[in-house]
Specification:
Blueprint (H helix, E strand, L loop, with lengths): L9 E2 L23 E6 L11 E3 L5 E8 L4 E6 L4 E7 L2 E5 L6 E5 L4 E4 L5 E5 L5 E8 L8 E2 L1 H9 L2 E3 L5 E3 L18 H4 L7 H8 E2 L1 H7 L5 E5 L4 E2 L4 E7 L4 E5 L5 E7 L2 E5 L2 E5 L4 E4 L5 E5 L6 E7 L11
Parallel strand pairs: 2-3, 16-17
Antiparallel strand pairs: 1-23, 2-4, 4-11, 5-10, 5-12, 6-9, 6-11, 7-8, 7-10, 9-15, 13-14, 16-18, 18-25, 19-24, 20-23, 20-25, 21-22, 21-24
């Protein structure tokens, strides 16, 4: 069995390895400048070029998307939860069969738990390169990505074909579908009809939390953002907490399942028996199950951090309690 050191469990922002051919829209104009990152777990990339930083199973996946201004990610959905928080930039999230059923704009630190069963996309509407961090339910991330029919059709017009095996084949590189492998079937009208057209008011009140609202609530204890008792009430196979200087965990704590720490503002010191590390915004740290550790700001000034905890809940569709 491979033994992982704590150093193996930290991915620095500056060391993230991007993949520019991760998904079917990698050649489609308007989406062809995306960078995708798989930080923890296998992720949902359709490309063999995707680099996985930490392959240790956690019960959920951590990834990221980096995009320049006016670059968008095409309409898709997953079988399990897809949660994003904004690390940098200004982002518009949109959803529905054609991407016009509803939308919301998120700023740094805001978080969205996108309902399962609807097509969703996002674009950087800021003026500089931006990054959003992603949490996907399950070790297999819900079995991949389901694309809106027009996305598959547009991709084929620009040389990319998705096989029924979930792999991409680039005609610009002389690749074609292998013998015995057909193209990924396009969703038919009966499948599309099962996907609700949720409005902005259907989604935002129950699926979006704003940074400054959470900041105000976290002056004495961590805020349960996503969970059975969270401000965004759901059971996606993990829980998300928001921690600031006032709610920092100075005493040692441990968890039954692995957890992940992701600063969004300020520098944070993570200490455990035998060592400590300082995390900056954009860094990601995997904390093993049952490890006693503390979480405290490393310097003065504003500080905020997301903590993702695994649990025993199945990573299924968005839960309605």
């Amino acid at each position: 069995m491979t033994q992982h050191t704590m150093a193996d469990r930290i991915v620095r922002y500056g060391e993230l390895v991007p993949c520019k051919t991760a998904f079917i829209d990698a050649h489609t104009p308007g989406s062809d400048q995306k960078e995708n990152f798989t930080i923890i777990g296998g992720g949902v990339s359709e490309s063999p070029d995707q680099h996985v930083h930490i392959a240790i199973p956690h019960g959920f996946n951590i990834g990221a998307a980096g995009q320049p201004p006016k670059c968008r990610n095409s309409l898709h959905d997953h079988n399990t939860a897809e949660v994003f928080f904004v690390l940098s930039g200004r982002w518009r999230f949109f959803w529905g069969r054609w991407g016009n059923a509803g939308e919301v704009v998120l700023e740094q630190g805001d978080i969205i738990n996108i309902p399962t069963g609807i097509f969703r996309g996002f674009e950087n509407i800021g003026t500089e390169y931006g990054m959003i961090m992603a949490i996907l339910g399950g070790d297999d991330a819900g079995g991949g990505v389901h694309w809106a029919p027009q996305v598959i059709e547009d991709a084929a017009d620009h040389g990319l074909i998705l096989g029924e095996n979930g792999k991409l084949y680039d005609q610009k590189k002389g690749q074609g579908l292998p013998d015995g492998i057909g193209p990924m079937p396009v969703m038919q009208s009966d499948e599309l009809a099962k996907r609700p057209e949720l409005t902005t008011m259907d989604v935002v009140p129950n699926h979006v939390a704003r940074f400054w609202d959470m900041f105000a609530l976290s002056d004495s204890r961590p805020v349960n953002v996503i969970g059975e008792n969270g401000i965004l009430r759901d059971k996606p196979g993990f829980e998300v907490y928001f921690i600031t200087r006032g709610s920092a965990v100075e005493n040692l704590e441990s968890h039954r399942f692995p957890s992940v720490l992701m600063p969004v503002r300020g520098h944070w010191r993570i200490s455990w028996d035998g060592g400590s590390e300082v995390l900056a915004p954009g860094d990601t740290m995997s904390v093993p199950a049952e490890l006693n550790h503390s979480i405290t700001p490393a310097v003065t000034g504003e500080a905020a951090l997301y903590q993702i905890k695994g649990n025993a809940d199945p990573a299924g569709h968005t839960w309605k309690g």
